[in-house]
User: Fold this.
Amino acid sequence: MKKIIRLLKGKKHICFLDFEGTQFTGEMIAYGAVLCTIDKQGHIKKSKNPILFYVRAKNKIGHYVENLTHIDQKLLDKLGISFSTAMNNLKHYCGLHFQKTAFVTFGNNDLRILNQSIMYNLDSPKEITSVIHHNYIDFQAIISSFIKDNSNNPLSLEAYCQLFEIGFEGEAHNPKFDAINLMRLYEAMLDRKDVLLENYLRTLYNTKHLPDPISKVMEKLNSGQTVDPDDFKKFSMEDLEW
Assistant:
């Protein structure tokens, strides 16, 4: 897909990431990552074993996030590492490819968590976080430009996985599994052109404020009918009340 290839800018590696953050301050409490090698068309050739790290936050996690992620303070006290160490571990995981790796998340909330963690940790390794910022890609923004729900809103990661018939591996809001499922969704969108096209047509049809002739064309196409230039001309004339 041209849009993805353009964003990747010739990169040979993608690190699919998911960050979990505190309820009120948005500091990182965990992250999962899967590093993949890709070909020139962006398809995944191989993937590395995923990683999961828990990160000690400066402020309270919050009950809502604890219930959602099953991460509580006892877990962070036992397994949590500093934000600085967490970022260095991510760099080590990516290895020599780190500076030329695309960091892909689902939604821009992950970038907010990263920024909040930088703000609360004065010792954060800026040379590492700046690389992530520079090579960051929001995959939700890409897929939602083609597929939205009937109200024109983006779907959840789990809903997109179900739409592409790949199911959802593991438990939602577990950062390791969210990163894995993001990787699977990325590859499914590249592979399942039939699913992408079918749902793109539906999304176009549901898009509000399209000119009436285009809406009528989309309605016919969406119902499986054939549309030719004369149809479009006819719809345009009707819109002009000729």
Observations:
- The CA atoms of residues 85 and 124 lie 9 Å apart.
- The beta strands are 13-21, 28-38, 44-47, 51-54, 101-105, 136-138.
- The two ends are 41 Å apart (CA to CA).
